[in-house]
Specification:
The complex is a heterodimer of chains A (114) and B (286). By secondary structure, chain A is mainly α. Chain A has 3 helices and no strands. Chain A has helices at residues 4-40, 47-69, 77-100. Chain B is mostly helical. Chain B has one domain: Cytochrome c oxidase, subunit III, four-helix bundle (Four Helix Bundle (Hemerythrin (Met), subunit A)), CATH 1.20.120.80. Chain B contains 10 helices and no strands. Classes of the chains: A mainly alpha (114), B mainly alpha (286). At the A-B interface, helix 1, helix 2 and helix 3 of A face helix 1, helix 3 and helix 10 of B.
Chain lengths: 114, 286
């Protein structure tokens, strides 16, 4: 029968092994999403649909990196709150600037894209 | 120095601080939060002004190379994986794996920078898009140049951490020889990186002009043999610096330093995820 210390050590080892596998799987997933993004821009669908698809793909990649690679999933929630304060302020600034200076002008126009 | 087991250190919590978070990590998260606002302004400025190409210059879609940018994106994603593995390695006290992961991250970061240098050179000298001849050029070069500077700072930080991992334990470290040794290591590392970049970019340009074949490589090697020999000497020098010299003052207790560096590197990656979509891919939607 194994001792509690040995069991804890085995658990830790299993956890670390698991983390290694998670990192590799997430990296492969991110590479696949990037490939899909590149294909997406050539699809013959409406611009607004393609733009929103790209935004969602980017957000998924972004969240995977910050929660898994940057360990937010395992860290104290305060780190997540702190980073998201900056993220919301940055995102809010972007939204305000695009709204003030014409969000429509930032969409691709057929007259410009030859 | 390496008698501590991985289970002895909680790498995510520090009970000695009022927040329970290591102060260094808290500092880095605060900095990254502020950097979000900085890049948010640069990206939105580019989005607003991107429809103002200079007179006589084709639209951004004709200037960009989606193949090159996709390759850069893939390389940066893989560098993030290697950085995560480096943090994982030092948390387990695996110094050998840490060094290998850091070196691979440096390699990928340098490839990304090389691609950016190649892209900028191509835009300025062949597509005639400069930082001063249009609003598009100004916002594009400011945004991607700022990101590239972040990557360059990250590469420097990685190299410094790699060299730090060789600091000898005990009285040896107190001697001035370690300072001299680490400075010489840094100089050789930087020179080798720059020379390698020069050689690789030179081969890429020669290949673009004459086509990639053995004759081109032979002609290039004949013309640039001093740079090739210097690069080879640089790599041999790096191998010499990495030879084992006894106990080192670097173990799991330094994990928070590596993790801080990792947070910075991953942030550079997530900024590129946004730039790749907002600056490059958006131009291909018609």
């Amino acid at each position: 029968m194994s001792s509690p210390a040995a069991a804890a050590s085995a658990h830790d080892h299993g956890h670390e092994e698991n983390k290694f596998q998670i990192f590799v799987q997430i990296a492969m997933l991110l590479a696949v999403i990037t490939g899909i993004e590149i294909i997406t821009v050539y699809l013959p669908f409406a611009s607004w649909l393609l733009i929103w698809t790209l935004v969602i793909f980017s957000a998924v990649k972004f969240l995977f990196v910050i929660f898994i690679f940057m360990h937010l999933r395992w860290d104290k929630p305060f780190c997540t709150i702190l980073f998201f304060i900056g993220l919301f302020l940055g995102g809010g600034t972007m939204w305000a600037l695009l709204k003030l200076f014409g969000a429509a002008a930032s969409f691709p126009l057929s007259s410009v894209v030859k | 120095m390496s008698s501590i087991s991985a289970a002895d250190i909680d790498h995510h919590h520090d009970p000695s601080t009022s927040t329970g978070i290591p102060n260094k990590k808290l500092l880095m998260w605060t900095f990254l939060a502020s950097d979000c606002m900085f890049f948010g302004c640069l990206i939105s400025t580019h989005l607003i002004y991107r429809l103002h190409p200079p007179p006589g210059v084709p639209a951004a879609r004709q200037i960009f190379s989606i193949e090159l940018t996709s390759f850069s994106t893939f390389i940066l994603l893989m560098s993030s994986l290697m950085m995560a593995l480096a943090v994982n390695a030092i948390q387990k006290g695996n110094l050998r794996s840490l060094r290998a992961s850091i070196l691979t991250t440096v390699l990928f970061g340098s490839i990304f920078l090389g691609c950016q240098v190649y892209e900028f050179h191509n835009f300025v000298y062949e597509k005639h898009l400069t930082i001063t001849n249009s609003i598009l050029g100004t916002t594009f070069f400011t945004l991607t140049g700022t990101h590239g500077t972040h990557v360059a700072v990250g590469v420097l930080w990685l190299v410094l951490m790699y060299i730090r991992s060789f600091k000898p334990a005990g009285a040896e470290a107190a001697k001035g020889t370690w300072l001299l040794f680490s400075f010489a290591h840094l100089v050789v590392f930087a020179a080798t990186l720059i020379l390698t970049g020069y050689v690789v970019l030179g081969v890429a340009r020669a290949g673009q002009a004459d086509g990639f074949n053995l004759k081109m490589i032979g002609t290039y090697a004949g013309a640039q043999y001093p740079a090739l020999i210097a690069t080879l000497i640089g790599f041999l020098g790096l191998r010499w610096f990495a030879l084992p010299r006894g106990e080192v003052d670097f173990d799991q207790r330094n994990a928070v330093d590596v993790e801080m560096m990792g947070l910075y590197w991953h942030f550079v990656d997530i900024v590129w995820i946004v730039i790749f979509t907002a600056v490059y891919l958006l131009e291909y939607i018609s």
